[in-house]
Every structure is written in C-alpha cells, then in structure tokens.
Amino acid sequence: MPFSVPEGYFEAFKVEMDTFEGKEPGLFRRLVPYMAMAAAFLFLVTGGTFLLQHTVPEEDFTQEDFLVFSSGISNYEYYEEMEHIADADIEDEDIIEYLIYSGISAEEIELSK
Predict the structure, then answer these.
(1) What is the 3-class SS of the chain, one letter each residue?
(2) How far apart, in whole angstroms, are the C-alpha atoms of residue 88 and residue 85?
(3) CA 67 to each of CA 58, 59, 60, 64: distance values in angstroms, whole numbers, following the listed order
(4) 44 pLDDT band (50/70/90 cuts)?
C-alpha cells in the first residue's frame, strides 16, 4: 500500500476525543451564531434603507405642502358650496322628495327634524 496510517494514530485520537466529551462550549462560542444573525439583519435593514433612499425619487410636494393645500381647498369649496345652496332657493318639499327618492324612510325624515 502506498499510503498508511501512522502507528497508534487511532488510539491517540480516541483518547483526545474522550477529553472533549464532557466540556461545554464557552459563552462566546454559544453567542457567535446569534451575533452573526443580528449583524446580518442590521446590514440588510441598513442597506435596504440606504438603497431605497437613493433610488426612489423625492417628491417635490411634501406632506406639509399637502396639508396646507388641502385645507385651503376644502375651506374654499365649502364656502363656495354654501353660497350655491343659499342662492338655489331650495324648499323643504324639494328636500323631502329627494330624501324619499333616495330611499330614506319617513321615520328617518321625521327623526331628522
């Protein structure tokens, strides 16, 4: 045979393995997989946030602009609508006919008075 095992190799190996059987791994060895998982998660979250911030175009219309713009429009439309209602000369009978046509019962109309 061209290759052979040294004399007494397996006996020495068995003795060395027997010495490791009763030992528990240290705290650091037990925490390494958890620390690696936390580092990978942190890397993914940080990298994803960075990627999204630099690839998604920024909107010119900010949330503050939206709030200012929408509050101005809603007030303007409300007052404009109130002027049209005041100028329309709608009578109570017209409103009752509309409510009946829309499916509201007489009891609901009476309760709303």
Answers:
(1) CCCCCCCCHHHHHHHHHHHHCCCCCCHHHHHHHHHHHHHHHHHHHHHHHHHHHHHCCCCCCCHHHHHHHHHHHHHHHHHHHHHHHHHCCCCHHHHHHHHHHCCCCHHHHHHCC
(2) 5
(3) 18, 15, 14, 5
(4) very high
Q: What is the pLDDT of residue 31?
A: 93
CB 96 within 8 A of CB 109: yes
Q: Which two tokens stand for residue 40?
A: 């990978």
Q: What pLDDT sits at residue 73?
A: 57
Report whether 93 contacts 103 (CB < 8 A): no
How many angstroms separate the Cα of 2 from the Cα of each of 5, 6, 8?
11, 13, 18
